Structures are given as C-alpha cells and as structure tokens.
Amino acid sequence: MASSPPSKRRRKNHSEEDSADASLHEIPPLVLFAHGAGAPSTSDWMIRWKDMLGKALHAVEVVTFDYPYISGGKRRAPPKAEKLVEFHSDVVKTAVAKHPGHPLILVGKSMGSRVSCMVACGEEIDASALVCLGYPLKGMNGAVRDATLLQLTIPIMFVQGSKDGLCPLEKLAAVRKKMKSVNELHVIEGGDHSFKIAKKHLQSNGSTQDESEDEAVIAIAEFVAKCLGRK
C-alpha cells in the first residue's frame, strides 16, 4: 500500500494528538508488534506502522519479529495460530527482560493480532493493553472465531476497515457485547483488511489515505493513554 514517508505525512486534530503524546511521556511503553499471515516484519506496511506507532506512543522500543514459518525469505503457509503462541510468548519475555518496568502493549496485524490475544490470555504475560489491526474474526469456513476474545480480561482496541471481509462490523459488534474486557473500536471508513481505501471513496469524502491512517493512530494513542491511567 503506497504511502508518503512518515516525515511528510499530513496531520489532523493536532490538539488531540499532542494531548495523547504528552500523557505517554511518563514511562514509555514497550510495544510488541506481530505481523500478519502473508508478509514478514520487513514488509512496507509493517515498517510504516511500526514507525507511526513508535512515534505516537513514544515507545521505548517497538519490537517486531518473524514467526518461524516465514523466516529465511521462504513463503510457506502459516500453521494454526495456536502453534505460534509459545514462540510469540518467548519473544515477549525477552523484550520485557530488556526493558523492565515499562508497560507492555501487544499489537498485531491480522493473524498477529489473533496470536497476540492468545498470548495475552496466558498467565506469564502481563500486558497493559492490546491493539488489533484488522482482526480476522471470520475463519476460512466463515465461522466466527471469538473464543479467545471472550477469554480476555485486559483492555483491547480494534482498528478495522469498514470493507474488511474478514471482520464484518456487525459480527464484531455482537462479539464486543459479549466480551468481559473493556474494548473500543476505531473504523477506517472504506478501508479493506489492510486499511487501503479506494480512490473513489477518498475523493467523495475529501480525505486522503494518510489522513485516515493518522486518525487511527491518534485514536490508538488516546486508547493506550487511558489504559495506562494517563488520561
């Protein structure tokens, strides 16, 4: 998905963003950012969002990594999400040991967000919040995969494109009502599973891809600030 360099991105709602920025300065969070099923941590999408999240959250570090099935540049089909939990948890533990005392925020793209939720359900991981970028609520057979979400007890934010076929918003709304954890939703209007918005939609709304993504990042920063008791 093409995008302007972060330094040239146009910003909206500066007062809201500045407020969230200031509140995150106290003890910067540690962010663990997991990739989706089809692209590694070195993909353009992951690099861009890593940069945006790091700046918006003033993170001490945004840790990205590759699951074993995608390492070495070979494209292989991902295993079931459950089989990635142990590896993901080990990455988290290593990062936490490197940055003791920093609140932990788990972030994931698509499959990575689902595995992040599974990791957060484990007793050994003490995360302050979860951010799911394009949660894949529907499985390949069309079934709603909500079991892990219903187990969660920590705050979680969903960032979803309104045209994401893997997560129909009406189905997500029904799941959110059943969840025990505090949960929020930010919708990128016209966005697909990777938040790409069609040019016709952008033109009709007088907006840009960058502006839509910037608004999502601002919402994430405000959510994290609330979870850390800083707003």
Summarize the structure in words.
With 231 residues, the protein is an alpha/beta fold. The protein has a single domain (6-227), classed as Alpha/Beta hydrolase fold, catalytic domain (Rossmann fold, 3-Layer(aba) Sandwich). Helix content is 39%, strand content 14%. The chain has helices spanning 14-23, 44-57, 85-98, 111-120, 147-151, 169-178, 199-205, 209-227; strands at residues 30-34, 61-65, 104-109, 129-133, 156-161, 183-188. The chain has a six-stranded parallel β-sheet with strand order 2-1-3-4-5-6, sandwiched between helices. Helix 1 packs parallel to helix 8 and helix 2 packs across helix 8 (209-227). The two termini are 33 Å apart. The model is unreliable at 1-12 (pLDDT under 50).
Q: Per CATH, which architecture?
A: 3-Layer(aba) Sandwich
Record the strand order, biggest sheet: 2-1-3-4-5-6
CATH class: Alpha Beta
Percent strand: 5-15%
Q: Report on the biggest sheet.
A: 6 strands, parallel
Outline: globular
Number of strands: 6
Q: What is the CA-atom radius of gyration, in angstroms?
A: 17 Å
Indicate the low-confidence ranges by residue numbers: 1-12
How many distinct helices?
8
Mean pLDDT: 90
Kindly report how far apart the N and C termini lie.
33 Å
